[in-house]
Design brief:
The protein is α+β, with helices and mostly antiparallel strands. The chain folds into two domains: about 110 residues, no CATH class; about 170 residues, Alpha-D-Glucose-1,6-Bisphosphate, Chain A, domain 4. Helix content is about 50%, strand content about 15%. The chain contains eight helices and six strands. A six-stranded antiparallel sheet has the order 1-6-5-4-3-2, with helices on one face. A hairpin with a 5-residue loop joins strand 2 and strand 3. Helix 6 runs antiparallel to helix 7 and helix 6 packs parallel to helix 8. It is elongated and about 75 Å long.
């Protein structure tokens, strides 16, 4: 009897260690393979080291990202879209279904210039979401705009800056410098930023580019499919981890869990066409179901 209990305990311990190893492997893939690319999405080597307004406000950031996009337009064409951006303002031009619920302006980000939001002033409150806000920092119309935390010195700074390439093309560069709050409850929001910011900011940059260049903003239905794909990939990952803990042939389940984690990372950070991410997630889900049915009871 005791030997049977010891065997069960040993089996559970081995499987838990294998799951911890799997979690560590996926974390290493994210930190070493995925994260560095996400923190410099679209930026050139010169832009990564370029000095930008607001750099001195957060001296030793935990999270530091520079991202950029080329827009077919002049700084004066792009500036109005930056000036009006924000929650309860024109929105973020990105994932409206996530970023704008409850906004006084409605769920859709603006598709036109809103004159009453064209003159932000340093020190004014800037709503970031229904539960968080920053303030406008230094502003140079037509050139750059800074969002900063209220703390003095600030522990978070967003800079949006415009750099002309030629008479008709401009680089829009986004830089975030954030110091994590390791010892208080604000850490939860910091960790959300860690994983969500690499998804959100490229979408914002692309949304601004589309509007300046006269393209139709992405339909909410497309956003819904993309968000549903994330949730499906996350559910598959959770299920695969459970399989690795409960299946008799847990080694096979461990490999399936590794694959599920990679599918989730691809869905979130691959910046692939929506149809491709959705097809991959659904195919992997079907593989999980078929493999589960083939397992001995």
């Amino acid at each position: 009897m005791k030997s049977g209990i010891r065997a069960v305990i040993r089996m559970v311990a081995v499987r838990l260690l294998a799951l911890f190893a799997l979690a560590g492997l996926l974390a290493a893939i994210y930190l070493l393979g995925v994260r560095p690319h996400q923190l410099r999405w679209g930026a050139t080597a010169a832009e990564l080291v370029r000095s930008m307004p607001g750099d001195g406000l957060v001296r030793h950031p935990t999270f530091y990202a520079t991202r950029a996009i080329t827009i077919d337009g002049r700084p004066e064409d792009i500036w109005p879209w930056l000036a009006q951006m924000g929650y309860d303002r024109a929105g973020y031009y990105g994932y409206d279904l996530i970023e704008n619920p409850g906004s006084a302006m409605g769920i859709r980000s603006a598709a036109s210039i809103l004159p009453r939001l064209q003159h932000p002033k340093t020190g004014e409150t800037l709503p970031i979401s229904a539960v968080a806000h920053m303030v406008f920092g230094e502003i140079e119309p037509g050139s750059y705009l800074i969002w900063r935390a209220e703390a003095d010195p600030p522990d978070g700074v967003f800079t949006w800056a415009l750099y002309p390439l030629d008479a008709n093309h401009t680089r829009l560069i986004s830089r975030i410098r954030l110091h994590y709050h390791w010892t208080d409850r604000r850490l939860a929001l910091d960790l959300f930023t860690e994983f969500a910011d690499p998804v959100a900011v490229p979408k914002i940059l692309q949304g601004i580019k589309d509007r300046v260049e006269g393209h139709t903003p992405e339909a909410l239905s497309v956003q819904a499919v993309e968000i549903a794909t994330w949730l499906l990939a996350l559910a598959e990952c959770a299920a695969a981890f459970w399989f690795a803990l409960s299946w008799r042939r847990w080694g096979r389940a461990w490999m399936l869990a590794l694959g599920s984690g990679l599918v989730l990372l691809f869905a979130l950070y691959g910046h692939a066409p929506v149809w491709l991410s959705a097809a991959l997630a659904m195919s992997w889900g079907a593989a999980l179901v078929l493999t589960r049915k083939a397992q001995p009871r």
